Structure formats: C-alpha cells, structure tokens
Amino acid sequence: MQAATSETSSVFELKSGRFTLPNLRLFHTNMDQFAEQLDKQVNMAPAFFQNTPVVIDLSQLSKQTAEVDFALLVGLMRGQGMVPIGIRGGTSRQQELAELMELAILSEQHNNERQKPVAAKATAQNKSAGNVSATLRPQISKLVTRPVRSGQRIYAAGGDLIITSQVSNGAEVIADGNIHVYGTLRGRALAGVKGNREARIFCQNLQAELISIAGQYRINESLKEEQMNRPVQISLSDKRLEIQSL
Amino acid sequence: MARIIVVTSGKGGVGKTTTSAALAMGLAHKGNRVAVIDFDVGLRNLDLIMGCERRVVYDFVNVINGEANLNQALIKDKREDNLYILPASQTRDKDALTIEGVDKVLNELSQTFDYIICDSPAGIERGATMAMYFADDAIVVTNPEVSSVRDSDRMLGILASKSRRAEKGLEPIREYLLLTRYAAERVSKGEMLSVDDVQEILSLDLLGVIPESQAVLNASNSGNPVIMDDDSDAGQAYSDVVSRYLGEDLPHRFLDVRKKGLLVRLFGGQR
Prior knowledge:
The complex is a heterodimer. Helix content of chain A is 20%, strand content 27%. Chain A is α/β, with parallel strands linked by helices. In chain A, the strands form 3 sheets. In chain A, strands 5-7-9-11-14-15 form a 6-stranded mixed sheet, with no helix packed on it. In chain A, strands 6-8-10-12-13 form a 5-stranded mixed sheet, with helices on one face. Chain A has a 4-stranded parallel sheet with strand order 1-2-3-4, with helices on one face. Chain A starts with 22 loop residues before the first strand and ends with a strand. Chain B is built from 13 helices and 8 strands. Chain B has an 8-stranded mixed sheet with strand order 3-4-2-5-1-6-7-8, sandwiched between helices. In chain B, a hairpin with a 6-residue loop joins strand 3 and strand 4. In chain B, helix 1 (16-29) packs across helix 12. The radius of gyration of chain B is 18 Å and the shape is globular. The interface between A and B is medium-sized, with 15 and 11 residues.
C-alpha cells in the first residue's frame, strides 16, 4: 500500500544546533571574592558580556564544597549583564539547587539527553519550592501564612513573595520579585534574584542575617542600629542598598 | 485509635526524657492506657528514668526485626497499672529503625493504648525523624537559652514539612512549647531569656514552664519520674502540664522569683 504523503503545515520543528558558549569555571564559593573578580573581568570588556549566555562549570569545585549559593551567584552574574543558562558538572545536590533557580543541567555527552517533560520538572520544583504547577508561569505572588522556620527555604519564582508571619534565623526567603514580610525578618532575604534591580524588600522589623537585591547584598553586621528593629523598605539605587523607614 | 505524641527538641540535654517520663506517668495516673517508647537507639535513657532498667529483656529493635513480639518487650510499670515502657536497644544503631517497622509497631500499640509517647533522641537525623514521623502532637522541649531556641525552631520546621501529616497534606501536627530549666532569678537579672522572649522568637503557644529544680536529679537517681514528687516545684509544674495538655486552662506557675522567708533562708528550703 502506498503511504500517503502528509502535508506539512506545522508551526515549528525541532532541530539540534551547536553553540560555543563561555564557561564560567568556579574554583571556590567565596561570594565576596567572586563579586570582586567578576566586576574586574566585566569592566575589561563590558560589551562582550552584555546579554551573553554563560554556562556555570562546577567540575573544579572540591567534593567537600558546601552548597553553592545559586541565588546569589545568578544574581551577581545577571547584575553584570550575563545570562546564566545552565550548569555543567557538579554533584546531584548542586544540580537540585541549580534546578530550583531554573538553570538547565547540561550533560557532558554529545547526543542531547531527552529533556524531562515540563510537567515533571514543575512537579519536582513543587516538592522543593511549593509553587503552583504550570507550564507557563504567570506573574503570581506566593503567599506564606505560617512562620518560616530555621533551615527552611522558600522561593517565589516569577513573582513576589508575601509572608504574613515571621522569618526565623537560619531561614531563607527568595523571590524573583519583591519580598514582603508582615512580621520580623531574622533570616536571609534575597529579592530580584534573576537580576531584577527594581525589586524591593519590605518588613515590619528588620533583624535580618543578610539582605540582597539582584545580587547586591549586605550582612547583619553592616546594618546600622537606627535601621534595625523597625519597619523598613530596602531598595537598590546604583550599586548600593538603600534602607528607608516605612 | 491512640494519640501519638512526640517529645522532641533538636538540642540535646534539655529535658526530653524527663518530660516523656513525667507525661507518661501523669496521663496514666489519670486513667489512660499509655505506652512510652525510647527512640534513642544506642544511647537509651528512658528505662533508667522510669526505673525499669533491671527488667529489660527485649527492646524496640527486637520487635521491629520480629525477634520478639510486643508483649514480650513491653515492660509494665510497677506504680501505674496502665503504663508500659518499650525500651530502646543499646547495642544496635539507628539504622535498625525503619519506617515500615516503626509504623507496624505503632499500629499494633494503637489498638490497645490511648496515648503513645515517643521519646525522641537529640538532633535532626534518623532517630529524631523516625520519632516524629507518625506524630499527631509534638511537645517541643526548649531551654530559655539561645542555642536551644534556635534548634527548637529548626525542629518545628522539620515537623511542619517532613512528618507523615505534612507529606500527605493532612491536618498538621499540633505543636506545643514546653519551656524547661527556667530560672526566674536569672530571668529577672536579664541573664536568661524570659517566656515572652522565647515566644517572640518561636511564635508558639506555651504548654508549660518547668522551673530549674534539684528534684529532677533526685528523680533520675531514684528512677521515679519527677511528677511523682508532688512537693517539688518541678513535679507540680509537670502535673499542670498534663492537665493543660488534656484541655484544662491553668495559669502558669513558678514564673516569678520566690521571696524566701526568714526561716527558709536560715534553714534552707531547697529540694
């Protein structure tokens, strides 16, 4: 029987392509030194790094390296105009954390590994970040009503994070957008982690261990007395974090 | 169906086993059938505090491995008819505990007991997570001291996310805060965190405050849970805790500095 020829009227086709991408190979995870070196490197050739997709190479990190702070890392890279798209190498734990930041896991092999179906990926992120499952993620806010306890990490991907309770010491709250804490902020808050420099942090009582907007961060020791223990909003102006009373 | 209570903390040495023993005895004294289980495999203490260390034949791990049945392992308390103790193994390690094994034992106990108290080991690793996994209620034992409060906060986070109730989306574990080793004088001098300080940091309602007391050491030494020493402040505080757990609304005692009368100061009055 003759096979009928079908008319192709598809909207798109998938083809494999080859690209050479700059690899940022990490040797250790001191973020202060990273920020410094990154700044120097970018200033030497700023145009080259604007909007450049970059792969983060973790293969040179020692096996004993504690967790890589991807939120800070991606924030710093984006702050300099780079587009971190994925990681290569790294332990399975590091890969898990990278996936939370929506970085692709690039395999070392030549043939393209089948991408995990989007739904399964969204479910995996559900378990770790508790997001609403959706293939297209609209700008929705994530609402948390119970205290965020020490050791817990909440990430609001694609939107704001609103917490109507306290954030304990040793907890981390992370958002692509703004962070609102209607309670005491004692832990770490990282807003605008994908590079959104307009993101802000609002809290009713600032006692944070660390605050960060688009990678620009400040630790508790560097907060002034008069900025703490009161309602504040934190924004990024130029390269400095501004803390204003509410 | 039994109510499963885990007595946990994160931090070590804050009073979990003391509390488990007192709570078990208190609930049994009020007519409930109570089983108290030691989850600290390899570092068992509950049998000492309950005073039954010379009667241990089989233990929790023996039952999980099918080497003995529950009736052979459970030790009946000599003071309360309704109270039974399941001791931990001293020679094995925590890997001997499995979720399926623990589940099976708790299910069997649930058939005939009203309350099952799980005395958790310190830390947040396997022993502690096993002890809290099946809990309905959690009593988080905390000393009014910064590292204990931080560790309790961590444990609360784990209770809220890694318990069976959390994983299955059921009603969350009911959390209770128990402040132990509270020294009112040190609080008034500003050396120790106050009840308000701890509640501020943890955002949790208070089940009770147990004052620092010499009665606790005496209790461990004699193998009689401190709640039996009803002359002591700690013993009375634990009685209040049992009543509050069962729903009674009692005011918190032993929070203020006790003014010692002349005679007490002359002849001493410490227990």
